[in-house]
Design brief:
single chain, alpha+beta, SH3 type barrels, four-stranded antiparallel beta sheet, three-stranded antiparallel beta sheet, 2 helices, 7 strands
Length: 182
C-alpha cells in the first residue's frame, strides 16, 4: 500500500506542475533576464567607465611637508629639553646620600696614604678631625668616585649629567700636605 500511495503522490505533483503553467513562465522569464544581464558583461568589450579596476586620473599623492617621518621612533634616546631650560644645566640626582657621599671633596683633607701590594688606601679628615678611609671605587660627594691613589695624591672623578644627555667629567685632586704645610 505504501508503494501505491507513493505513485499516487508522484502523479499528483506532476499534475500540479502541468496545471500551474503561470509559475513556470515566471521562472523562465526570471532566468532569461538574469542571463541577459550577465552575459553582455562577460563577453562585451572593456569599457573604462564600467571597469572597477581602472586607474583614475586624480590618483592619490602623499604630501610630506609638515608631517613627521612615519619610520622614526616616537621615543628617542636623548631627552627633549623643555622650552626655557638651559640644555647644559646639570641635573641633580635624587638618590639618598650615604657614607662618604655626605662629604664633598673640598670638605676633606688628605692626611695619609697607605700603598701595599694588594691595596691602596687613603686617609682623610673632615673639619671635626674625624678620620675616614678611601679606596679606589669609593663614592665620595654627590657625583664623585675615587679613581686613583698615588703616594701623595688622590684622584676623584665627578661625572655630571646635563639636561641634553651629555656627561661632563671633572677630575679633582686631593694632595697630601707635607709636615709643616697647612
Amino acid at each position: 500500500m505504501s508503494i501505491l500511495s507513493k505513485t499516487i503522490r508522484d502523479d499528483r505533483t506532476m499534475i500540479e506542475k502541468k496545471e500551474n503553467p503561470r509559475r513556470f513562465a515566471v521562472c523562465l522569464i526570471g532566468y532569461a533576464l538574469f542571463l541577459f544581464g550577465i552575459l553582455p558583461n562577460c563577453f562585451g568589450e572593456d569599457n573604462p567607465t564600467n571597469n572597477f579596476l581602472s586607474t583614475k586620473d586624480n590618483s592619490y599623492t602623499y604630501k610630506v611637508e609638515g608631517r613627521m617621518d612615519p619610520f622614526k621612533p616616537f621615543l628617542s634616546e636623548k631627552a627633549d629639553v623643555p622650552a626655557g631650560f638651559d640644555p647644559n644645566e646639570i641635573i641633580e640626582s635624587t638618590d639618598e646620600l650615604i657614607g662618604m657621599q655626605l662629604f664633598e671633596p673640598g670638605q676633606l683633607k688628605l692626611v695619609g696614604v697607605l700603598i701595599s701590594s694588594t691595596d691602596e688606601l687613603a686617609m682623610v679628615e673632615d673639619q671635626a678631625n674625624k678620620g675616614y678611609l678611601l679606596k679606589v671605587g669609593t663614592p665620595i660627594g654627590k657625583r664623585g668616585i675615587v679613581t686613583k691613589i698615588t703616594p701623595d695624591q688622590v684622584f676623584i672623578t665627578e661625572t655630571a649629567l646635563t639636561r641634553s644627555g651629555k656627561e661632563m667629567k671633572t677630575i679633582i685632586t686631593m694632595s697630601l700636605n707635607k709636615e709643616g704645610e697647612k
